[in-house]
Amino acid sequence: MLELKLDRVSKQYKQKMVVDRLEYTFRTGVYGLLGENGAGKTTLLRMAAGVLKPTAGQILCNQCEIGKLGGAYRMKLGYLPQKFGYYPNFTVWRYMEYLAELKAVPPELVKGRIEQLLGDTGLSGVQSAKIKTLSGGMVRRLGIAQSLLNDPEILILDEPTSGLDPKERIRFRNLLSSLGRGRIVLLSSHIVADIESLADEILIVKAGRLAEAGSLQEILESAEGKVWECTVPPGQAESLNRRVGASSMKQLEDGRVCIRIVSEGRPAEDAVPVSPNLEDVYLYQTMEGGRGV
Ligand SMILES: Nc1ncnc2c1ncn2[C@@H]1O[C@H](COP(=O)(O)OP(=O)(O)OP(=O)(O)O)[C@@H](O)[C@H]1O
Ligand SMILES: [Mg+2]
Prior knowledge:
Blueprint: E1 3-13, E2 16-27, E3 29-35, H1 41-48, E4 56-61, E5 64-65, H2 66-69, H3 71-76, E6 77-80, H4 92-102, H5 107-120, H6 136-147, E7 154-158, H7 166-179, E8 184-188, H8 192-198, E9 201-206, E10 209-214, H9 216-221, E11 227-232, H10 234-244, E12 246-251, E13 257-262, E14 272-273, H11 278-286
Parallel strand pairs: 3-8, 3-9, 6-7, 7-8
Antiparallel strand pairs: 1-2, 1-4, 4-5, 9-10, 11-13, 11-14, 12-13
């Protein structure tokens, strides 16, 4: 069985610990990384993809350090970097062909696989267009398509849905739920709904450490009893928002405001506890002075 293990992995830039002794074992399944800007998600994914060396600790694929595996690891891997580089003057088809060669896809499979992937990502219609003429969302989709060229066992996608419109995000979700099976998929996103619907396990990263990890159910339990709602006049809603911060505020027809709050204790006398959703957990875990790590 395929296993990718983070063994006390750290990355330090000067005095700053960007990833701090992370330990986790990934097995077949989809793992979603959530975390604030600068939390260390990209750094972690770059290390997992073997393009950045940890300062300490190691990453093991089936008990073998990935640096030692070298080319053999790259053959197993598909990677979409957050900042995805491409050749603007290549056509979509030529670019895919070029990468298929680099990834040593057997020549007899290349044409069929490119056709399939361009179809899956909705790019068949622009296969002869130069990449520089594509929209941002199309380039992102091309990035997703290229990451799958070698039918990788390990797929690392850094913000695959950023820049995609809602329809394309849904297409991506469906694509991943069929293509993700039987692989280790690590993906990061700021779009909580994407993580919620895609990931079998969710990892909340905070300042280079894991604030929480588990299935959606387990993650939701961590914020049980910390999410509240109350309906109050607008003035009180404003002052509550200033004091404790609202996760959402909804104006009702009668002029009052239904306010949702993530807080350790009851934030207002008439606040009632409600079931947490992933967005609440995310807020709870990344809260200033919150439990997190
Ligand atoms: N090459 C580098 N040199 C110095 N600091 C770096 C370098 N790369 C990243 N960092 C710092 O490491 C921290 C983590 O960055 P990283 O890009 O991993 O975060 P992230 O969670 O992916 O953020 P985002 O959600 O914005 O993509 C940031 O504070 C960043 O400034
Ligand atoms: Mg990032």
